[in-house]
TrEMBL record, chains A, B:
Belongs to the HypE family. This is Hydrogenase maturation protein, carbamoyl dehydratase HypE. It comes from Thermomonospora echinospora. InterPro entries: HypE, PurM-like_C_dom, PurM-like_C_sf, PurM-like_N, PurM-like_N_sf. The lineage of its organism: Bacteria, Bacillati, Actinomycetota, Actinomycetes, Streptosporangiales. PANTHER family: CARBAMOYL DEHYDRATASE HYPE, HYDROGENASE ISOENZYMES FORMATION PROTEIN HYPE. GO terms for biological process: protein maturation. Residues 182-328 form the PurM-like C-terminal domain. Gene3D superfamilies: PurM-like C-terminal domain, PurM-like, N-terminal domain.
Length: 356, 356
């Protein structure tokens, strides 16, 4: 048993350090992946759990275990609705964890699955989610090897929440790290952005927009492997989920203390996503993808990277969307179609809650 | 993207096989760890995710990764109330995953932590939970290396749910497996039973019982290591969480196709737990512990096992509570204080919901 004093002492010590969470209560923005999430994670979690693996704050931790180099990651899924065009919470949970491992440079191997079910949830819906998880695991070449099920009373959940964790092995000698990013590097995305977020938003039916869109949820491990096979000079990979491409680029720019300049016209985006974002009043750079990653590679290898990605169907619309430069350090800038430049800040608030 | 047909085909194939879940909707009993959980897990999860590691259905999966022998496990925590005498959801989540790894015979190394927070949840409560997780991790000698935070709207959770997953390494050449259990083996528990479940139940304040009880939540890795150092002939270890000692013994008896006979008078239980169970009308053998394990060892080594456990403070009240015999295979029997014998079946229903 941990004594009350030990716990209070830890809270006291944590409070003495910076940064702090200013809010007294959790808001939806704390779950959006942007500024509020970042301050919550840094102030509450990193500070308390302090260790080198966690401080990397990537999509997963890279660990040495008994001579093996492993990646380990977790995500919880609370998407609403549970079923949406192109996927459901099940394949989302499998692909999300597979992708977090893949962008660590690991080959995803094993997944765990934890379910929090609301009393009264239809067993048939659970079967559908589980079948979709099994199909996604087969497609990604991973096994779901351990799990847990909890049930809470009516009104204490929203049907079904899924938590997945994953273990992968790093078979390549590379280290992917945002601090390795340097001026002259090229920034790529693996495909059109924002489809997942907009699809889920429209599936809620609150907006009277109909669009023939499906989520981009997909396992990225093969596409990542194709890129790493072709281009050894990959600096860092990140999957562009919550907070979208803009949030990922901000995190990279801050870690690397460089500027990232995005050419808006070069960003692949389907007209229907662009149109829906305009109606919703959201910048598509902030909209979650669940089957796209951002890669920063040595500028000299940008073409080779692009070619490698485009040979795969998941990467056929990959594009170089920008470059890294010295100034202003830590900032992401976008060159607009009109020739202007704007700052693309970290996400504030949560324009699309419960998207994943 | 997985096609709709692939998903439907998987559901159809799964339905053709046995066992089935008879209920159309999830009930609290599906989360209790007893019969309903077992049928849900077997019918829905094991069938869909079919693979050898999962079919072991222990407290975690044992995996070979890049030459290393790893254990991997997960649990979600939905305990209500979040704070209770002797612990909170935070140390419960850390100790629970540490213990699942320990009873696989692994040395717990790394944990992940996923949070599902309800909008409006006090940040101070989150800080308290996280500090308690950090203290529990330090005590158990593990690192929390990766995590995730999601926020859902008001009324879509109950404050805070925590999911932990864990990775450990199997440094010993042993294989712990319920199918290795054989007639003549001795059954031990590592300490007094039922304290966690009764403490949480009383902390809800619905019953007007006051008792000076605290949860037994604790990391069991050192105690397990002490046992394994002293007694190589340990057949199987299980931590007695949801469904209590009775459920664990039933799972072992079914896997081993042997009978287990428990001597009720030998089961260590604090008078206050026994008294509260009597008032609640619950058999303490079904009440969750969060810092106790059941061990089955070669009968010839029962004394050595007991001595090894009792040298540690967490094991000072360890006891031999029964033995394994041939008949009737798959059943757990209890010899009562009055000299009678009763069948201790797998738990039906959920007498103590949301205990972990």
């Amino acid at each position: 048993m941990i004594t009350e004093e030990q716990v209070l002492e830890r809270i006291r010590r944590a409070r003495e350090r910076r940064p702090r969470v200013r809010e007294e209560r959790i808001t939806l923005a704390h779950g959006a992946g942007g500024k509020a999430t970042q301050s919550l994670v840094e102030a509450v979690f990193v500070d308390a759990f302090r260790n080198p693996a966690l401080e990397g704050l990537g999509d997963g931790a890279v660990l040495g275990v008994d001579g093996a180099r492993l990646a380990f990651t977790t995500d919880s899924y609370v998407v609403s609705p549970l079923f949406f065009p192109g996927g459901d919470i099940g394949d989302l949970a499998v692909n999300g964890t597979v992708n977090d491992l893949a962008v660590c440079g690991a080959r995803p191997l094993y997944l765990s699955a934890g379910f929090i079910l609301e009393e009264g949830f239809p067993v048939a819906d659970l079967e559908r989610i589980v079948a979709s998880m099994a199909a996604a695991a087969t497609r990604a070449g991973v096994h779901i090897v351990t799990g847990d099920t909890k049930v809470v009373g009516r009104g204490k959940a929203d049907g079904c929440y899924v938590s997945t964790a994953g273990v992968g092995v790093l078979e390549r000698p590379l280290t992917l790290d945002a601090t390795a990013v340097r001026p002259g590097d090229a920034v790529l995305v693996s495909g059109p952005i924002g489809e997942h977020g907009v699809t889920v938003m429209l599936a809620r039916g609150e907006l009277e927009i109909e669009a023939d869109l499906t989520s981009d949820t997909a396992p990225l491990n093969d596409l990542v492997a194709a890129l790493l096979d072709a281009v050894p000079a990959v600096r860092v990979l990140r999957d562009a989920t919550r907070g979208g491409v803009a949030t990922v680029l901000n995190e990279i720019a801050q870690s690397a203390r460089t500027a990232i300049v995005v050419d808006e016209a070069a960003v692949p985006i389907r007209p229907m996503v662009a149109g829906a974002c305009e109606l919703l009043g959201i910048d598509p750079l902030y909209v979650a993808c669940e089957g796209r990653f951002v890669a920063v590679v040595d500028g000299a290898h940008a073409d080779a990277a692009l070619t490698a990605l485009r040979t795969r169907s998941l990467g056929e619309h990959a594009a170089v969307i920008g470059h890294v430069q010295d100034d202003p350090p830590g900032l992401v800038l976008a060159r607009t179609a009109f020739g202007g430049t704007r700052v693309v800040d970290t996400l504030v608030g949560d324009p699309l809650p419960r998207i994943c």
